[in-house]
Design brief:
Helix content is about 30%, strand content about 25%. With about 140 residues, the chain is of the alpha+beta class. It has a six-stranded mixed β-sheet with strand order 3-2-1-4-5-6, with helices on both faces. The radius of gyration is 14 Å and the shape is globular.
Length: about 140
């Protein structure tokens, strides 16, 4: 069975999100580790080239990977439209990576803002300086 995940990138102004879907390998050691590497690479690139936006690099980088399906850009206060059958939800906000593996998250939130607040407060903030393993849960 596939381990599906949603990936949400919050805009720097905290007004909207870009949402992606990954159909398989959504575990920490799969998608989580890929996102950690993307984020570390992007932060390093922004440090070297000051004109670059971390947000823009991440959206472009993830969009260019065929394993990630771009779903939509939504207002933060819009009704949440995450898949009801995902096992993991990852949020990248302000240069940090968060996740939840709560399967029923769609029953707990109504708007994108509630989702971001739920994930970033209730679940783990992932360390960017070490490889992710599934036993981190």
């Amino acid at each position: 069975m596939s381990t599906r995940s949603n990936i949400i990138i919050v805009t720097p102004d905290n007004n909207s999100i870009h949402q992606f879907y990954h159909h398989f390998d959504g575990y920490l050691s799969g998608v989580g580790e890929e996102l950690r590497k993307y984020l570390v690479y992007s932060i390093g690139l922004c440090a070297r080239v000051k004109k670059l936006s971390l947000y823009d690099i991440l959206v472009e980088y993830i969009s260019s990977d065929d394993d990630y399906e771009y779903e939509c850009t939504m207002d933060l206060n819009a009704s949440n439209k995450i898949h009801a059958d995902v096992e993991y939800t990852y949020v990248i906000k302000d240069g940090e990576l968060y996740y939840t593996n709560k399967y029923d998250i769609h029953n707990k939130v109504n708007t994108n803002k509630e989702l971001i607040d739920y994930v970033c407060k209730d679940c783990n903030k992932l360390a960017l300086d070490k490889q992710l393993h599934d036993d981190n849960e």
